[in-house]
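ok here's ABC transporter ATP-binding protein:
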Amino acid sequence: MNHFVNILRYAKPYKRFAIGHIICNIFFALFGTLSFVALKPMLDVIFKQGEANVASVKPEWTGFTDMGDFIEDFLAYQMNYYTNGDNSKALVFVVGLIITMFLLKNISGYFANYFLVFLRNGVIRDLRNEVYRKTVELPLSYFSEKRKGDILARVTSDVLDLQYSFLSVLELIIREPLTIIFTISVMLYISPELTLFVFIFIPVMGVIISKIGKSLKRKSDRVQKEQGLFLSTLEETLTGLRIIKGFNAEDKFNDKFQESTSRFYHFSNKLINRQNLASPVSEFLGICIIAVILWYGGNIVLSQTGSSNLDSSMFLVYMGLSYNVLTPAKAISRGLYIVKKGGAAAERIQEIIDTKNPLKDKEGAINKKGFDTNIVFDNISFKYDKDYVLKNFSLNIPKGKTVALVGQSGSGKSTIANLITRFYDVNKGKILIDGLDIRDLTISSLRAQLGIVTQDAILFNDSIKNNLKLGNDEATDEQIIEALKIANAWEFVKDLSEGINTNIGDSGNKLSGGQKQRLSIARAVLKSPPVMVLDEATSALDTESERLVQVALENMMKNRTSIVIAHRLSTIQNADEIVVLNKGEIVEQGKHKDLINKKGVYYKLVEMQSFG
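and the structure:
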């Protein structure tokens, strides 16, 4: 139930639709009850009891305690006034009254649903936006432990489940309980004895339905988790299709996917069959109650015993009202099933929304503008899991200098790029920019000082122009073309059918690896930040493109602070300082020539690459 309350918080901006929905449902319940009450004068006419209920004097209102008698006398008076005691005309009058009641009921029902559409779809939109916003906000560490398909399932199918579970119950919150309250009030007026007798059986019905629905949440959670699993398999397949085909692994992935969908098939069957049990069980129990009413009420009518003095027409109205209680009662029991099913989806969505972001801006964080003196790594240590990948790492990078980080794979080079950008926070020590701990800065102002080119060229399914404008949304076409020229990318972009407006496909797959990397370099050039972080920026380029881009990068890095993470050592020989890492620790530090002359770790790395 807590999850239901949490979801309803998103309804606040749509309270005007909620109020309209509630008002219309009140009228729906009222006219629904009155439509059965209006049957009484018609049945009196049919059973030739109309004359006994004809009132020639307009009744007077004497208070709520006599409201039932007043309504009955008022209807009789109006019927007598318009029909002059003619039973055929009286029948037409009553039929018209019944049609009017049902018309008003259905108009109210339509407008209740009309307002609910805006309420429900608005909540779903805001909820989906909130899940996406939180997904983008959460640190990379959160997603390293999650399957992408599971996240996709939560944003899509789980949110959709809520639309047809929790939010569909909004319709039942007012309408069905009010219908039951209005109807039972009239039933109590007609025959308190019979109504109290019926109430004995209603708790029995509730207990049986509750027992059937107990396992729905668990079964639903199992279905949704399995859906996340096969969506993960689908996402991995689309991402790695080239490798799957290259290794003839189509059958292996096909089997994996089919195993998951088979489990989903069995879990779904159990869930839906349990859910389908709600309607026939509640209907059968409802008919049992109707049968009890027929038996007990019929005896009262036939013997004319009890305090209610039921006559035949009033008893038939009472039976109609009993049916009017049965329909919303079934809807409520079905709604309880749906809520239990939706509980699993709400829990999975709430898990993302409630996840604490350890990298969130602290209160009073500084909005830093510009970069003035230096970047200092002050005795930092960091681990992704159990083992430290950086240990007691200290480094001073003055403004305008280029520092290269080299070392074997796993030595911690890319980790430094992750830490300076605050994709992760250090476990020990601190990173300072102009003497300020980066944890004291707003993340947006920190990253505004940084231009990032990653080892993997990450591009999006959009035009070249829009991909580059991630770095500078205000950039003109001329500035975009200039950035492309600096990155040695204009030579192939100008030959494309639509130039910078050409769509590059999913992940830029319409381009070669080298072309994608040059576009990612152009994106960083266009941003023109004071600090550049180049994580294996030239690793995907062929030898000729590497040489040309290297010249462009060197020109771009003049008068700019640069952290260059390099695998190809030939690209960093002109760096102001080269830092050699091994197992997360600095083992050598200095200029290229000095490190070569030392004939230490750096010398061996250069020799190995030269030999290669």
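+1. The chain has 24 helices and ten strands.
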